[in-house]
């Protein structure tokens, strides 16, 4: 019997330097393209992430394969490549991973004092649990 595949959510800062360009290049294969620039632009911005505040960039892996992203920016004007408060593909993940990703978003926005956005994330997760706006579990990554 094969061991159950476990997903890992890893902060960009914890990824070995030599692996970062390959992972950033793989984002396009799972549907993410920055609003501006390419891999070098994303890498330059991600290198500025500060522990305990924004922005934070998380990657979801199953074994060594990139299957997801959860980018917590917190500011729509600061980075041309990432003009969102947060962007992820949580809606494409299995529910257990989706819950973790959305929980990270809620905690992030609460810490920034952005309670309205945190509450929005809670409502979005409630919809996902009802299979509103989320892939069916059988169609998830």
Strand numbers in spatial order across the main sheet: 1-2-3-4
Total domains, how many? 1
Separation of termini? 21 Å
Q: What class, by secondary structure content?
A: alpha+beta
Q: Percentage of helical residues?
A: 25-40%
Beta content: 15-25%
What integer value in Å does the Rg equal? 15 Å
SSE ordering:
EHHEEEHH
Description:
By secondary structure, the protein is α+β, with helices and mostly antiparallel strands. The protein has one domain (about 5-130). It is about 35% helix and about 15% strand. The chain has 4 helices and 4 strands; from the N terminus they run βααβββαα. It has helices at about 20-25, 40-45, 95-110, 115-130; strands at about 5-10, 55-60, 65-70, 85-90. Strands 1-2-3-4 form a 4-stranded antiparallel beta sheet, with helices on one face. A hairpin with a 2-residue loop joins β2 and β3 (about 65-70). α1 crosses α2 (about 40-45) and α3 (about 95-110) runs antiparallel to α4. The longest helix has 17 residues, at about 95-110. The relative contact order is 0.15.
What secondary-structure arrangement, pairings included, does this model have?
Blueprint (H helix, E strand, L loop, with lengths): L6 E5 L8 H7 L12 H8 L9 E7 L2 E8 L13 E3 L6 H17 L3 H15 L12
Antiparallel strand pairs: 1-2, 2-3, 3-4
What attributes does this structure have?
141 residues; alpha+beta; four-stranded antiparallel β-sheet; 4 strands; 16% strand; globular
């Amino acid at each position: 019997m094969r061991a159950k595949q476990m997903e890992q959510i890893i902060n960009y800062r914890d990824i070995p330097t030599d692996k970062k360009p390959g992972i950033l290049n793989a984002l396009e294969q799972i549907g993410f393209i920055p609003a501006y620039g390419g891999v070098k632009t994303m890498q330059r911005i991600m290198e500025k992430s500060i522990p305990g505040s924004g922005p934070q960039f998380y990657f979801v892996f199953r074994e060594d394969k990139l299957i997801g992203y959860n980018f917590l920016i917190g500011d729509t004007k600061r980075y041309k490549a990432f003009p969102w408060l947060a962007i992820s593909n949580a809606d494409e993940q299995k529910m257990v991973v989706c819950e973790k990703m959305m929980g990270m978003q809620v905690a992030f926005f609460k810490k920034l004092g952005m309670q309205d956005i945190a509450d929005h994330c809670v409502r979005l997760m409630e919809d996902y649990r009802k299979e509103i706006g989320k892939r069916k579990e059988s169609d998830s990554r």
